[in-house]
Design brief:
Layout (H helix, E strand, L loop, with lengths): L2 H15 L9 H13 L3 E6 L6 E7 L7 E6 L18 E3 L2 E3 L3 H15 L11 E6 L7 H13 L5 E4 L7 E5 L2 E9 L14 H21 L13 E9 L9 E9 L3 H26 L4 E10 L9 H10 L4 E4 L5 H7 L2 E4 L14 E3 H17 L2
Parallel strand pairs: 3-6, 3-7, 7-14, 8-13
Antiparallel strand pairs: 1-2, 2-6, 4-5, 5-15, 9-11, 9-12, 10-11
C-alpha cells in the first residue's frame, strides 16, 4: 500500500469517529479538517449556520486567481438508530478488503482521499487554484451547500470545474433528478373514539392527503418527457413517514406526513405543489373546519434542490474522463449538491468511491480498491493542474 493510500485510511478512521449525524453539530469534525488544511498553508474560511452549531469549510491551495477546480463533499451522515450493526458504526473497522463505518461510503471516504492527496501537494507548483468544500446537512436538504454557494457567489468565487465525490463506484455522473422534501402537519380535534363524528381525525385527513399524492404518481408517469434520459423517466413521489395519534380509542388530534418528490422537469414540481395546495384548500380544510374552525394544515418546505442537468459542453466531465481514462458518462436517480454548484456557474460532475447501494444501511462499507482508485484520480488531477 502506498503511503498516501495508508494516510487516506487513517484520515477516514478519524472522520468516521466523528458522529456527525445531521441532527447534531459537525463543528468538531470541521475544526479537525480546518487545522489539517491550515497546516498545509491553505486559505481557509468557515461558514456557520444560523445556530452556530454547524459549519461549512472552504479551503484553497495554489494561486489566488479566478476559476480553478473544486472538490466537494458533505460531512453529515444519516442516523444509525434502530439499525443492527455488527460493529460500532462510529469506529472504522476493516474486514478483508472492506472498511466499515457510518459515512465510510457516503461520503467520508472521498473527504479522506482529498486530505491525503492535499498533503502531497506543493502549493507553489499549482498553476490553478485547487479548492475544497466540505458542507453540513446534505442529508436533510443540502442546507449547507445552499448557504455556501450564496457565500461563494458574493465573494466572486466561481470554480471552473466542480467534482462532487458522492459514491458512484468512480463512474462519471453528468446528470440526476432534483429532490424536493416537504412535511405536512395536520391539527384536528381530539375526542373519544366512540364518537368519531364529533372530532376531526388528523390521521384520517393525513391519509387522504397521502392518497392524493399517490394518485398524482400516475399523472407524473403520463407527463414523462419522451426524451427523458432518467430511470425511471418520470418524476417520482415517495412517502417517507406518516405519524399521528396517541391511542386506539382516541381521535387523532395531530398527524404528520413527510414526503419527497424527484422531478425530471420543473413543470412537474409546479404541477404537484399547486394540486396539493388546491386539494387542501378546496377539499380537506373546509371539511375539517366544518367541525372545528381551529383545524389547520401546514406544509413546510424542508428543501428544494435542483437536479444536475446534463450539458453538451462540460469541462468537468471531460477532465474526469481524461483523469480516469473513461469515455462514458451516466445518469443516476439519487440527488446530490451538484445542481447547486451548477447554478453557481461551474461545470460539474459527480464521481467518487463506493456504491450508493451501501449508503444509509447498517454495516455501511467502502471497498479499499475503490478508495485507491479515487486517490489515483485525485493525484492525477494535481499533476494536471500543476
Amino acid at each position: 500500500m502506498k503511503p498516501v493510500e495508508h494516510r487516506t485510511i487513517e484520515h477516514l478512521r478519524h472522520l468516521v469517529g466523528f458522529a456527525s449525524v445531521s441532527s447534531d453539530s459537525n463543528l468538531d469534525l470541521i475544526s479537525w479538517l480546518s487545522d489539517k488544511f491550515k497546516a498545509l498553508g491553505a486559505r481557509v474560511f468557515l461558514d456557520h449556520d444560523p445556530s452556530g452549531a454547524k459549519a461549512n469549510l472552504f479551503a484553497t491551495l495554489g494561486p489566488e486567481t479566478t476559476g480553478g477546480v473544486l472538490l466537494s463533499g458533505h460531512t453529515d451522515v444519516v442516523p444509525v438508530t434502530d439499525q443492527d450493526w455488527a460493529s460500532d458504526p462510529f469506529e472504522l473497522t476493516q474486514s478483508n478488503d472492506r472498511l466499515y463505518g457510518r459515512g465510510a461510503c457516503d461520503m467520508k471516504g472521498f473527504i479522506a482521499a482529498c486530505l491525503a492527496v492535499a498533503e502531497t501537494i506543493d502549493a507553489n507548483s499549482l498553476a490553478r487554484p485547487l479548492h475544497f468544500a466540505f458542507t453540513y446537512d446534505e442529508e436533510v436538504g443540502c442546507l449547507g451547500a445552499r448557504a455556501l454557494v450564496a457565500v461563494l457567489r458574493n465573494k466572486g468565487l466561481v470554480p471552473e470545474i466542480t467534482i462532487i465525490g458522492e459514491p458512484t463506484e468512480m463512474r462519471i455522473i453528468e446528470g440526476h433528478k432534483g429532490c424536493c422534501e416537504y412535511t405536512a402537519e395536520f391539527v384536528g380535534l381530539e375526542g373519544h373514539g366512540s364518537a368519531p363524528d364529533l372530532g376531526v381525525n388528523a390521521a384520517e385527513y393525513a391519509t387522504r392527503y397521502v392518497t392524493r399524492l399517490l394518485e398524482l404518481r400516475q399523472d407524473l408517469i403520463e407527463r414523462s418527457p419522451p426524451d427523458s434520459p432518467f430511470a425511471p423517466p418520470w418524476s417520482t413521489i415517495n412517502i417517507g413517514r406518516i405519524s399521528g395519534g396517541v391511542a386506539h380509542n382516541v381521535i387523532a388530534g395531530k398527524a404528520v406526513v413527510d414526503w419527497e418528490m424527484r422531478p425530471v422537469q420543473d413543470s412537474d414540481a409546479d404541477f404537484v405543489k399547486s394540486e396539493m395546495v388546491r386539494f387542501c384548500a378546496d377539499d380537506l380544510l373546509p371539511a375539517m373546519q366544518m367541525i372545528s374552525p381551529e383545524a389547520t394544515i401546514s406544509v413546510t418546505t424542508i428543501g428544494e434542490v435542483a437536479g444536475l442537468v446534463p450539458m453538451p459542453q462540460n469541462a468537468a466531465r471531460d477532465l474526469v474522463a481524461q483523469l480516469t481514462d473513461s469515455n462514458r458518462a451516466d445518469l443516476v436517480a439519487f440527488s446530490t449538491e451538484a445542481g447547486l454548484f451548477q447554478a453557481l456557474g461551474s461545470d460539474v460532475v459527480v464521481c467518487g468511491p463506493g456504491s450508493i447501494r451501501q449508503a444509509h444501511k447498517p454495516d455501511e462499507y467502502l471497498e479499499i480498491d475503490q478508495l485507491n482508485v479515487c486517490v489515483t484520480m485525485l493525484t492525477t488531477l494535481v499533476q494536471h493542474i500543476s
